[in-house]
Amino acid sequence: MKMPTVKYQKGDTVMGRWPGSSLYYQVKVLGFDSKSQLYTVIYKDGTELELKEQDIKNVTGFQTRSRSRSRSRSPGRRRSRSRSPARTTRRSSSRTAAAVAATAITESTQSSRRDTRLKDTVEVRLSPVEQTKAAENSSNNKHEKKEENNTASKVIEKSEAKVEAESEKNQGPYNLRRRKADGDAKPAEAKPDQPEKKAKEAAAPSTIPSAPLDFGGKIGAYFWLLFLPAWVLFVILQGNLTDPSLINAPPPLPPLDTFWDAQALCFVILWILFQALLYILPVGKLSEGMPLRSGVRLKYRTNGFFAIMVSAIVVAVAVHQGADLTYIHSHFLQLATATFIISVLLSIYLYVRSRYAASEELALGGNSGNVVYDFFKGRELNPRIKNFDLKFFCEMRPGLIGWCLINFAMALAEMKKHNLDAPSYAMILVNLFQLLYVVDGLWNEEAILTTMDLMHDGFGFMLAFGDLVWVPFTYTLQAYYLVLHPNALSLPAVIAIVTLKLIGFYIFRKSNSEKNAFRRNPSNPKLSHLKTIPTATGKSLLVSGWWGVVRHPNYLGDLIMALAWSLPCGFSHLLPWYYMIYFIILLVHRDSRDMSECRRKYGSAWDEYCRTVRYRIIPRVY
Ligand SMILES: NC(=O)C1=CN([C@@H]2O[C@H](COP(=O)(O)OP(=O)(O)OC[C@H]3O[C@@H](n4cnc5c(N)ncnc54)[C@H](OP(=O)(O)O)[C@@H]3O)[C@@H](O)[C@H]2O)C=CC1
Ligand SMILES: CC(C)CCC[C@@H](C)[C@H]1CC=C2C3=C(CC[C@@]21C)[C@@]1(C)CC[C@H](O)C(C)(C)[C@@H]1CC3
């Protein structure tokens, strides 16, 4: 960059104020943009920011800040055990841009959220220095003090209103740029029909970091590809046995031709097309997803509740017209096989199209270069055909609504099998509990846009199979089990199980809604009583409310609900407890995946959060 005649020159070592605080760090000037009148500076750990001239000072007139003074002043110190910058640096394994953020715990009130944030900035990770008295008294500084509030409040406005998109787009008075060390640069791939894009990407190295391999890496991917379908087959066959113990040896494989049923395939295709039709109808809200790396926010048609209502009406009419839904029970294996074939075809399509996707459209994981691993994990973050979002659709519609349809069919099958006028209590509970879970998910469909799957995971075999096969054919195992293995429940047992379910549901819904509301609008007045930790990405972390109890309160609620789903099936067999066992494993693994991802994103701010909120899922236990 050619430097015009400006106060500070490229290469100068100066003191740069950290946005939102009155602390200065030694920085090097990288350049000056005459248009925006901002200096690009680099901090010692490699973080780049754009600063105004007022926020830059000459090194003379500064002295090293005494840490104890800095810390004892800090309101946040009262909340945190280990605040030594040195210690934090040692403990933090993956320092990102956040590692230099002024990590503060802020308590905001409705009226003075911004001011409080400014006052409460308590900790920095570089060796902060402050100006000498002489320098502080200078007239220049008086002006600067006034300006400090202006500029800092701009930062907060930025981080509270349109935070993510703007920080990524490099707009506004300060820019927190991605650190170069955020990940390995990957060779750019571009769509052949987008020569402009290709040229641009070839010129600039791709910013897509490849995340560390998950799920046991490349070998693990082979394993899961074989194990997951085999497991679905195993539990379906077990469900038909008189003694369906999970620890029994697998039943003998039925002849191959029993797997295939063309009619079953037609039903599955019809069901998916029907759901796709409901999804594209211009009914319901168009919700915005979280900002992507490019700053773009995709739009999603969140009409899931409408879709399940219409589906229920259509199914009711079909049953009234004589359709025999017990077909689903008697052809469970064939329906699962047909859906499996569709999920494999879909995964192949997803992998092939991801080879043509631009690098900015790829997820952080799933780009290892190993075909099998990438096929399994998924490469493209939001594969779309025009506005039709494949990942969102698959996650929220055919499998999820199909789950309720299958449960309902199992209730009818139970009545048929045992000549009942009504389903058993156990079957009713399982049906109602899971229906509530699905309907709630669809009612709050927008909230899915802030979950890990939608924000971070690529769409590949794992999710395609998970959404289309795993959910409808294994999450229904309790109802499937009850058809052949009835379990009588006393009234007190029913009351106890319903109470447990409601407690779990309350925790699950409240915590998910709190995070979703906060992510969508961090300055939401309803959340102003909550404490937050700002991070260098512009986003903050909730540190009180539900997210101050444990790091994943939503998982806790979900697990309590899972317990309530299995209890109606009794303790005679392990099969109906499969979901509970699987779910513990899934959520513990998800929690650790999320931990690594958040540590990568938020650096020391995340470490700070973990020190403040010590337990992951169960208070005082885990
Ligand atoms: N039934 C089932 O099979 C499954 C159900 N679920 C349920 O789906 C829901 C979503 O789960 P999942 O996507 O795994 O995870 P979360 O909804 O918990 O999302 C995790 C993300 O939330 C953000 N976050 C974490 N801590 C904080 C905080 N303190 N303050 C603000 N934001 C924070 C981070 O993203 P960022 O900071 O980038 O916004 C983090 O990556 C859960 O209720 C879970 O139980 C999940 C898996 C399977
Ligand atoms: C096959 C693998 C071993 C695991 C696949 C995992 C998937 C089945 C799950 C990953 C996250 C999910 C969510 C839901 C269903 C299961 C999958 C797809 C969810 C849609 C269920 C309904 C909830 O209300 C929810 C919060 C919207 C869930 C979001 C995550």
Protein model, in words:
With 622 residues, the protein is α+β, with helices and mostly antiparallel strands. It folds into three domains: 49 residues, SH3 type barrels (Roll), CATH 2.30.30; 279 residues, no CATH class; 132 residues, no CATH class. 49% of the residues lie in helices and 9% in strands. Strands 4-3-2-1-5 form a five-stranded antiparallel sheet, with no helix packed on it. A three-stranded antiparallel sheet has the order 7-13-14, sandwiched between helices. Helix 9 packs across helix 12 and helix 16 runs antiparallel to helix 19. The chain is elongated and about 90 Å long. The structure holds NADPH dihydro-nicotinamide-adenine-dinucleotide phosphate (NDP) and ligand LPDX5YLU. The site of ligand LPDX5YLU has 15 residues, from helix 16 and helix 18.
Distance between the termini: 52 Å
Overall mean pLDDT: 76
Shape designation:
elongated
Low-confidence stretches: 64-209
- What level of helicity do the residues show? 40-55%
Reconstruct the topology from this structure.
Elements (H helix, E strand, L loop, with lengths): L12 E5 L6 E10 L4 E6 L4 E4 L4 E2 L4 E3 L2 H7 L11 H7 L14 E2 L5 H7 L9 E3 L1 H5 L1 H22 L2 H7 L25 H9 L13 H23 L22 H19 L4 E4 L10 E4 L1 H17 L6 H4 L1 H23 L16 H7 L6 E2 L2 E2 H7 L1 H20 L7 H19 L8 H4 L5 H14 L2 H8 L6 H30 L10 E4 L5 E3 L10 H14 L11 H25 L1 H9 L10
Antiparallel strand pairs: 1-2, 1-5, 2-3, 3-4, 6-8, 7-13, 9-10, 11-12, 13-14
